[in-house]
Structure to design on (526 residues):
């Protein structure tokens, strides 16, 4: 383990989720999306949240983003209570959520234009830097609909990175892409994470993806949404999604996942 | 190139068949003037200034009324879409009143404002406003909510969100609404000009009505033709650039 990594591990928590509970009322009854969930995310950590759909992992991400408020409990980002969205925490959604009325550069500039302390020339340079980082500098004047699905997510990544947040919140960002594009993006996201040193919280239902990307993987169970298990993935970077070592981790996580989904009937009753 | 040729051929043959039918002698020229009669009238009325003045008077009323309709219609449409209370009140009112043909406003306008420019303006605004409100409202409501969430995470709020996100996101609907509003404004203004005879200005609608009273069918048809041409020009100059822009950006309208 390098000195750099060691320093990162002893750094104070960047995100502290403290006893967060959130429930939704639907016409089929009340769903407890999160039940007294507490997590600490270290600075620069790549944390993956895995679980079956409806287990509250996306809800947790939205709460960290400040797009949703918990019924009880609190979230601290860099020691400060989260009361709404903030430029220190940027979100990447499953749908690219790019604005169709702006071109690629315009989309990346959107958040930058709202950031004080930069003039327009500097903003443009910053935007171009990030477009270059995601390998799309040739497409800065392209329209969104002209891009492939993978390229759209790259633009969304550049847009999220541009205001230089400390935390990147990713909600199944690669779920809608084909396998080959996804593999490229696994490489890209690890490269960018190492270069830019972000704290990343990554939601997915793909176990292998979680094992490939995360320093740590948290396993969620649904209704009530709770953290059931925690896995440390001690593999060197950059990791290859198809590597044999990775398969060991993903098997372990999958087994745990099957374990509690099979006896869920009894679990819910307890 | 091929497209403009087909347009030209189409309109030329239309004019030729018209001329042919007019010359066949089946119909009296009072009922069916020939295209040449109409052109003659247009030439003469352009030279003595009648057409210019009438067009100018009408355009002034139209632009003022349409402008006011947009000025109030767009913001009202935005707020009805975003606030449920306004949706259930003003939105419902707009939906109902919009079904009213604009000529129905004329009697009311005459009683309220008399034979004045105000009556004219009132009818045009009533003809425009409601359809613009509804189009804007529909546009905002058709916007994917994810845009708002994405904008919020990037620090957009309040007026910035309205102007930089909600408004451009509803642009395709908005231009549709503005086009419809323009068409409605025209219809209501012509209705108003035909029914409201006032001395402060002699517009195209009044010219049309006088043509009828004098049995000058060439004048009637000429004014109709001019209204059509102005409508086409407005479409090309006012709306087409916007439509081209958003079709290109959104990747819609592939049949072009």
């Amino acid at each position: 383990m390098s000195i750099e990594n060691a320093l990162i591990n002893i750094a104070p928590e960047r995100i502290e989720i403290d006893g967060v509970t959130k429930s939704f009322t639907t016409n089929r009854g009340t769903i407890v999306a999160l039940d007294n969930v507490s997590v600490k995310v270290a600075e620069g950590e790549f944390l993956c949240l895995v679980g079956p759909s409806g287990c509250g992992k996306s809800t947790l991400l939205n709460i960290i983003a400040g797009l949703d408020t918990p019924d009880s409990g609190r979230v601290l980002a860099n020691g400060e209570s989260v009361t709404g969205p903030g430029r220190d925490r940027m979100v990447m959604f499953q749908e690219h959520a790019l604005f169709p009325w702006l071109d690629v550069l315009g989309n990346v500039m959107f958040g930058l234009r709202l950031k004080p302390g930069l003039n327009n020339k500097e903003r443009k340079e910053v935007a171009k830097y990030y477009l270059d980082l995601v390998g799309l500098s040739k497409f800065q004047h392209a329209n969104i609909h002209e891009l492939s699905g993978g390229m759209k997510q790259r633009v969304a990544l550049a847009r999220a990175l541009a205001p230089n947040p400390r935390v990147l919140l990713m909600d199944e960002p690669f779920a809608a892409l084909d396998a080959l594009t996804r593999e490229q993006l696994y490489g890209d996201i690890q490269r960018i994470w190492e270069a830019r040193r972000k704290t990343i919280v990554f939601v997915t239902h793909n176990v292998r993806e979680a094992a490939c990307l995360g320093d740590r993987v948290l396993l969620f169970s649904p209704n009530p949404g709770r953290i059931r298990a925690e896995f440390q993935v001690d593999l060197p970077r950059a990791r290859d999604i198809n590597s044999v070592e990775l398969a060991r981790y993903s098997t372990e996580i999958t087994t745990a996942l099957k374990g509690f989904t099979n006896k869920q009937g009894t679990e819910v009753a307890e | 190139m091929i497209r403009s040729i087909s347009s030209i051929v189409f309109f030329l043959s239309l004019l030729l068949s018209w001329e042919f039918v007019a010359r066949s002698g089946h119909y009296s020229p009072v009922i069916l003037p020939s295209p040449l009669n109409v052109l003659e009238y247009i030439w003469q009325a352009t030279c003595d200034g009648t057409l210019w003045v009438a067009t100018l008077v009408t355009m002034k009323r139209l632009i003022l009324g349409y402008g006011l309709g947009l000025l109030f219609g767009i913001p009202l449409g935005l707020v009805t879409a975003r606030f449920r209370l306004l949706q259930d009140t003003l939105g419902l009112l707009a939906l109902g009143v919009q079904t009213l043909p604009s000529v129905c406003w004329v009697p009311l306008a005459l009683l309220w404002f008399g034979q004045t420019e105000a009556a004219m303006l009132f009818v045009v605004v009533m003809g425009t406003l409601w359809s613009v409100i509804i189009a804007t409202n529909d546009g905002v409501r058709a916007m994917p909510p994810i845009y708002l969430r994405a904008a919020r995470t990037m620090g957009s709020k309040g007026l910035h969100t309205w102007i930089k996100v909600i408004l451009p996101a509803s642009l395709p609907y908005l231009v549709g609404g503005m086009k419809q509003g323009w068409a409605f404004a025209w219809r209501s203004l012509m209705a108003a000009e035909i029914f409201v005879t006032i001395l402060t200005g002699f517009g195209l609608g009044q010219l049309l009505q006088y043509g009828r009273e004098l049995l000058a069918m060439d004048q009637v048809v000429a004014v109709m033709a001019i209204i059509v041409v102005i409508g086409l020009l407005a479409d090309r100059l006012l709306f087409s650039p916007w439509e081209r822009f958003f079709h290109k950006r959104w990747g819609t309208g592939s049949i072009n």
Observations:
- The interface with chain A takes residues 144, 146-147, 149-156, 160, 164-165, 168-169, 171, 246, 248-251 of chain B (CB under 8 Å).
- DSSP finds eleven helices and no strands in chain B.
- Chain B has a mean pLDDT of 90.
- Residues 97 and 171 of chain B are 24 Å apart (CA to CA).
